[in-house]
Amino acid sequence: QLGLDMEELEEIEEDAGLGNGGLGRLAACFLDSMATLGLAAYGYGIRYEYGIFNQKIRDGWQVEEADDWLRHGNPWEKARPEYMLPVHFYGRVEHTATGAKWVDTQVVLALPYDTPVPGYMNNTVNTMRLWSARAPNDFNLRDFNVGDYIQAVLDRNLAENISRVLYPNDNFFEGKELRLKQEYFVVAATLQDIIRRFKASKFGSTESVRTVFDSFPDQVAIQLNDTHPAMAIPELMRIFVDIEKLPWNKAWDITKQTFAYTNHTVLPEALERWPVDLVEKLLPRHLQIIYEINQKHLDHIASLFPNDMERLRRMSLIEEGGTKRINMAHLCIVGSHAVNGVAKIHSEIVKTQVFEDFAALEPEKFQNKTNGITPRRWLLLCNPGLAELIAEKIGEDYVRDLSQLTKLHQFVDDDLFIREVAKVKQENKVKFALYLEKEYKVKINPSSMFDVHVKRIHEYKRQLMNCLHIVTMYNRIRRDPAKLFVPRTVIIGGKAAPGYHMAKMIIKLINAVAHVVNNDPAVGSKLKVIFLENYRVSLAEKVIPATDLSEQISTAGTEASGTGNMKFMLNGALTIGTMDGANVEMAEEAGEENLFIFGMRVEDVIELDREGYDAQKYYERLPELKHAVDQIAGGFFSPEEPDLFKDVVNMLFHHDRFKVFADYEAYVKCQEKVSELYLNSKAWTKMVIRNIAAAGKFSSDRTIKEYARDIWHVEPSDLKIPPPNEPRDSAEDKTLNGTVA
Question: For residue 533, what is the DSSP state?
Fold first, then answer.
């Protein structure tokens, strides 16, 4: 009525880019599912003033710009100054008759901002609480800084920098003091908040002023999303022992029963190992508590395995040699009652390789919880055409129970349904093609196969292998222009961590190849290559529904789960991928014949490591690989700077941990099978339908039900709470239920 376009309005809203990749997006899907399942759950994090950087491509290179996402305000958040809490840093520990005291600390205030998280059509609204750092008003004014009032006020920035910016590394540990401050900041504020809420509830019964914490693990479950909040374990111990005066053993028992830990990566460079001297400076009491936890832990191991010094060294929370470091994953395992991986294959690797000593000790502690995605955002919201088409066939209930998608199997031979599914895909492609032409000034053929590889740029994700395939396709077109070629639009997108040189070179290489391919008249509309700038959630919502082929090609054993793979499957793309992460379970659900699976399995990778990976061997044996590599190395794609990509080529030959050449041949052959099927539109679409019908397992609702039952011990309820305008039975308000953070 106002003459405004809703879609235009939606475009104006900034993404809340408060995470790096899969980990942060998984948390968002989990919040949606917890609310939809009626769980009393809170999501805690940091309200970064600047989120993940905006990526600009200038002359083929990634350039970072600050993400000033709060510039125009954020209508969804509500500041809650009444719940502001103090967080302490630095200082020293005094040991007194009444116990340890952490004194002479610097205080930073944590100001919470609440964002509502509505469940799907069930009148439930949960809370995401993000902490912002504020300096206390007497900051730098109470002591030494008597004369310089102006400087003291300006120095407030030092405290408030804690929540200034998100560290932009995905799957990489950078041991910076500010990062450790951020990790402790969110943990200390959150635990105070949880304990305040526990004490206010009827469960925190006080006997002569002192709270009884016996029921704490029955009322509170805390899930550690990777090791980033691992300091919560010594912090809860500090609160129980130093402040609440519980005996150590009781405090430790309650702490272990409260925490559970989710592992999200097996890459060694991603594991958090904080230098002891940094922790001692910043959090002296916590270091003492960690040492105490470690001592008791090692005493226990020694009693079970006398004289096995090597085992003690492997299992210690403290790594000796060079600079002493705290292994945060070990701390999380020892301090939690449950540990899980995020896909079957990943959880196996966690148990049998990465943490095998711990799993041998307590096998019952280790579980699997395969990741999922919310079908509300990743189908209904981003692909209304497909969502409606599905609802016409099987009803609307599937939105809350995605397993009902199996009902689509009965329509796999229904000619009308096949045509409608293909039509929705084609409409999504036309719409996205128009977007690409507007943004990139490249003419896109909407009937070409949209071959999409979007995720963070990392060597293990092997965007380089995709790049070699592009060069190979290009060479085949040029060698035999008359030969039938199935037209493709290859779309690659993703951000590289600003300090990750190789990832930035990979972006430059893709853009250099794109420039040559897109401007060669011999190629024409057969092959187009686009590097998608500033890949983020809002852009994923556009590209995923338009995708024909989803690229999930990490080296087997390196991608813990992946969740983009699931989004593509649900939106009618076919997958080309390795047997890695959740791809394995996708193949299990849909049938391996309905995915394009290629390449080494985990066993093959281990075997190749044992005999030694020799890249040269593949280069010499495969003429098309040799040709492509020689072009890159010889400056064919960078004539003004022939040795521009020497670092990339050198890596591929001499230190490629992810074995791109070893899977190249199988990948190219598999891609030929993809092209062949794409020529038969009907057979392609039938395979698409089989995939959608098998995607039900990958709802985050299923994942959260498993966490709730196996780890948190709470029951999901699909009861619809009456809306606030209807009177409700006051007895219903008295249901006993714990909370999850």
Answer: T
d(CA 175, CA 271): 11
Is domain 6-368 in CATH 3.40.50.2000, yes or no? Answer: yes
C-alpha distances (whole Å) from 258 to each of 69, 223, 705 are 35, 8, 18
Task: With a cut of 90, say whether residue 574 has pLDDT above it.
Answer: yes
666, 596 Cβ separation under 8 angstroms = no
Contact 739, 42 (CB under 8 A): yes
Q: What is the three-class DSSP state of 228?
A: coil
pLDDT-based confidence at residue 204 (cuts at 50, 70, 90): low
37 with 718: CB under 8 angstroms? yes
Interior angle at CA 117, CA 396 and CA 706, nearest 5: 65
As a whole number of angstroms, the distance between CA 348 and CA 346 comes to 5
Packing angle, helices 415-440 and 384-394, rounded to 10 = 170
Q: To the nearest 10°, report the CA torsion of 542, 548, 553, 557.
A: 80
Mean pLDDT (the chain, rounded): 95
Q: Quick one: average pLDDT of 383-391?
A: 98
**Within a 10 A sphere around the Cβ of 208, how many other Cβ atoms?**
4
Is residue 516 within 8 Å of 637, Cβ to Cβ?
Answer: yes
- The partner residues of 56 in beta bridges, in order of sequence, read 63
**Domain parsing of the chain, residue ranges:** 6-368, 384-698
**272 φ, ψ (degrees, to nearest 5):** -80, 125
CA distances from 72 to 13, 17, 68, 238 (A): 9, 15, 9, 40
713: helix, coil or strand? coil
Label residue 91 left, alpha or beta by phi (over 0 means left) and psi (-120 to 50 means alpha): left
Residue 462, token pair as written in the block: 């092997």
Q: Model pTM?
A: 0.96
Closest CA to 334 of 233, 423, 421, 249: 233
CATH of domain 384-698: 3.40.50.2000
| 253-286 per-residue burial string, b: 16 or more CB within 10 A, e: under 16 | ebbbbbbbbbbbbbbeebbbbbbbebbeebbbbb
Beta partners for residue 550, in sequence order: 452, 575
d(CA 512, CA 505): 10
Handedness of CA 428, 434, 440, 441 (dihedral sign): positive
pLDDT of residue 740: 65
User: Which H or E run contains 115?
Assistant: strand 106-118
Active site positions, annotated: 264, 455-456, 461, 563, 567
